[in-house]
Amino acid sequence: MRNPFYYGGIVSEKYFCNRENEIKELKKDILNGLNILIYAPRRFGKSSLVIHTLEKLKKEKKLKYIFVDLMGISSKEEFINEYFNAVAQSLEEPLDKVINFFKNVIKFRPVIRVTVDEYGRTKFHLEFSPEKTLETLEEVLDLPLFYAKKGRNICIVFDEFQEIEVLGIENRLRSKLQHHSNRISYIFMGSKKSILQKIFQDKKRAFYRSVKHFQIKEISEKDWIKFIQDRFKKTGKDIDKSFIKEIVTITRGFPYYTQQFAYELWENTEKEVDEQVFKETLKLIMEREEDLFATEWDNLTSNQKKVLKLIVEKNGQNLYDEHILAKYEIKVGSLRKIIQILMEKDIIDRRENRYYLQDPLFEYWLKQKIY
Ligand SMILES: Nc1ncnc2c1ncn2[C@@H]1O[C@H](COP(=O)(O)OP(=O)(O)OP(=O)(O)O)[C@@H](O)[C@H]1O
Ligand SMILES: [Mg+2]
């Protein structure tokens, strides 16, 4: 019997838990041609949510989409080629048709190279001389307009959008995209909240207030209970609700960790989850993460460590309490400064006046270490 849980890459239908409301809202926004910003911590299920939604829309024949993954992109040339390749893939036509199409629509008659990667997938490259870079960028960015002309809705996703910060194309990108019709909806996503906030909230920058900020939250305990129990049952095993509640208390419903926990628990369970199997699984997961957390911890300054401990001890609230400042021997000014640094490093975040560690397992690990 195959494990009914999965963690790692993007999950589709088979391993996808709920998010019904988000899907509904996202569908509406995309079809209305809005531009959308989605940021959430790493491994939070951003890519899965967006692709899942777009696949649904595609099946309903409501749109085409182009997914551009900017992870690791470090130059304008790489950006152009990643983008060009994504457009070419989205055409879903035979090779010669795709090439002919591009030869007709790109003004400077480019050289198009096609290679096959190790997984047997076709990859498209554009060859152009360095002095033609900006011109090529603009032409390539306009390619989706051909879909729009055909009266089709289209959605273009830039995953890991924060990577464009260093490419020096922000202004050009913005001025190009804003002239695209409302048939084209852009989704900008990423995990570096601090960088993305600057790009979209700084008045001096091109993308200032050009998007709807789409919030995604953790998946709720109720949804996880149904998801996990169903899958145990379907594979001839049992799990009591109370264990799922315990999982979600530790993982806060964070998608990656919750799936990981369920996966390992299922593996370790013969027939029914019991206290011992649960404890062993938790131990196994924590042992596996230990090295990573210890390294992350070692990379912090002693003051930053103090502040993290303080946040854990005070459950993120009333941090400026006199007694606690005295106990940790820290001054108000430096506490404020360190909190800001930890926010910029995406280690902590704040919700409704409560600070918390972004990574729920890192927080759990730290709690075990302190108490
Ligand atoms: N809706 C969901 N239901 C169940 N599990 C999910 C869901 N979304 C994400 N996951 C779990 O989280 C893992 C990571 O998902 P995904 O790659 O979509 O996250 P991400 O936020 O794009 O991550 P990254 O920051 O690494 O790009 C998946 O492999 C899966 O185990
Ligand atoms: Mg992703």
Automatic annotation (TrEMBL):
* Superkingdom of this protein's organism: Bacteria
Q: Residues in domain ATPase?
A: 16-259
Q: Name one Pfam family in it.
A: ATPase_2
Q: Name one GO molecular function term.
A: ATP binding
Question: Per its UniProt record, what Gene3D superfamilies does this chain match?
Answer: P-loop containing nucleotide triphosphate hydrolases
Which named protein is this?
Putative archaeal ATPase
Q: Which organism is it from?
A: Persephonella marina (strain DSM 14350 / EX-H1)
